[in-house]
């Protein structure tokens, strides 16, 4: 089967090239220091969501779906060192470069999120970060999560969403470049609106919390290195220069930390002001006793 004839193969090859190029390597930490974790959790809703999962493990196996090179598996073990993480990714390269954890146990599994190789009701705790925007059939992946989760399982899902495409500067960039350059850089092959994602979750789980910060300044304070490329292709020289400077600031240890803190503050202000719908959704979920009867 040729690459052109297989969209699934194309996506797998994108993932392989992405990790082989040294990209997608989220900073790894397994610290148990409460002060450091509090700072990281303030700066990252992803890490905060994982920390919000139940601490009492009735059984030791935890599913990290789309684990990449293990940043969030390590983060979970920093607070739950007694757990065994089943880290699933379909990129051989990501799993080969997996960060070894000094705490707990991590078992790496190469598998497709659409067809998980686990028995029904295997996991009490599940999380997935930076993954659901890369899958072909979101409904199928969510159904697999329902299948392998035990009743009452605690689940944290971070999903990329497409709301940002309808606001400036992305709406202008997409029109000017005739494609979504930022999504292509990240390999986001399948994006849904936050409203659609909420509906899909509601059909399958109890939703304990769900939010999507607007990320109005995300192009400047969140991901300037990616928007620099999009602005450059659109030949918007002023914004290319601005995002280039911000990308350099983000790379420096001290100023980069300050920028992340400022970005976190703006996200919280957006939620306080009721400004929703950006590029990410964050959800704490629970598997009900019966999906069919959960809304009765």
What does this structure look like?
This protein has 296 residues and is an alpha/beta fold. The chain folds into two domains: 1-160 and 192-212 and 276-296, Rossmann fold (3-Layer(aba) Sandwich); 164-184 and 216-275, no CATH class. It has 13 helices and seven strands. It has helices at 7-20, 34-43, 45-51, 71-79, 92-96, 138-148, 170-177, 181-186, 194-202, 218-222, 224-234, 237-251, 253-272, and strands at residues 61-65, 84-89, 105-110, 123-128, 149-160, 206-211, 280-286. The chain has a seven-stranded mixed β-sheet, sandwiched between helices. Helix 4 links the parallel strand 1 and strand 2. It is globular and about 55 Å long. The protein starts with 6 loop residues before the first helix and ends in a 10-residue tail after the last strand.
CATH class group of the largest domain: Alpha Beta
* Number of domain modules: 2
Strand content: 15-25%
CATH superfamily of the largest domain: Vaccinia Virus protein VP39
What is the number of E strands?
7
Mean pLDDT: 89
Number of helices: 13
CATH hierarchy: architecture of the largest domain:
3-Layer(aba) Sandwich
One letter per element, helices H and strands E, the order comes to HHHEHEHEEHEHHHEHHHHE
Mind telling me the C-alpha Rg? 19 Å
- Looking at the chains present, what oligomeric state does this protein adopt? single chain
Measured distance between first and last alpha carbons: 47 Å
State the helical fraction. Answer: 40-55%
Largest sheet: 7 strands, mixed
Strand numbers in spatial order across the main sheet: 3-2-1-4-5-7-6
Low-confidence stretches: 1-5
Shape, per Cα inertia axes? globular
- Structural class label: alpha/beta
As for the CATH topology of the largest domain, it is Rossmann fold
């Amino acid at each position: 089967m040729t690459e052109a004839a297989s969209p699934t193969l194309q996506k797998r090859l994108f993932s392989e090239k992405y990790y082989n190029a040294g990209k997608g390597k989220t900073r790894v930490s397994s610290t148990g220091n409460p002060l450091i974790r509090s700072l990281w959790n303030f700066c990252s809703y992803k890490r905060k969501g994982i920390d919000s999962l139940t601490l009492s493990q009735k059984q030791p196996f935890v599913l990290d779906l789309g684990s990449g090179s293990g940043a969030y598996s390590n983060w979970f073990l920093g607070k739950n060192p007694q757990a065994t993480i089943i880290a699933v990714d379909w990129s051989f390269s990501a799993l080969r470069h997996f960060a070894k954890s000094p705490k707990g146990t991590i078992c790496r599994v190469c598998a497709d999120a659409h067809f998980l190789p686990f028995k029904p009701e295997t996991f009490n705790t599940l999380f997935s970060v930076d993954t659901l925007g890369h899958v072909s059939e979101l409904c199928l992946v969510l159904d697999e999560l329902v299948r392998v989760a035990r009743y009452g399982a605690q689940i944290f899902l971070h999903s990329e969403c497409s709301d940002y495409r309808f606001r400036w500067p992305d709406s202008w960039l997409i029109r000017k470049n005739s494609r979504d350059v930022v999504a292509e850089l990240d390999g986001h092959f399948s994006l849904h609106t936050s409203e659609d994602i909420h509906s899909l979750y509601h059909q399958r789980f109890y939703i304990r919390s769900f939010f999507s910060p607007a990320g109005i300044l995300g192009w400047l304070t969140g991901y300037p290195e990616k928007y620099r490329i999009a602005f450059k292709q659109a030949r918007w020289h002023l914004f290319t220069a601005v995002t280039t400077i911000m990308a350099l600031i983000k790379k420096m240890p001290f100023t980069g930390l300050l920028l992340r803190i400022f970005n976190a503050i703006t996200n919280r202000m957006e939620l306080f002001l009721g400004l929703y719908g950006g590029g990410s959704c964050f959800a704490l979920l629970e598997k009900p006793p019966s999906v069919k009867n959960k809304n009765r």
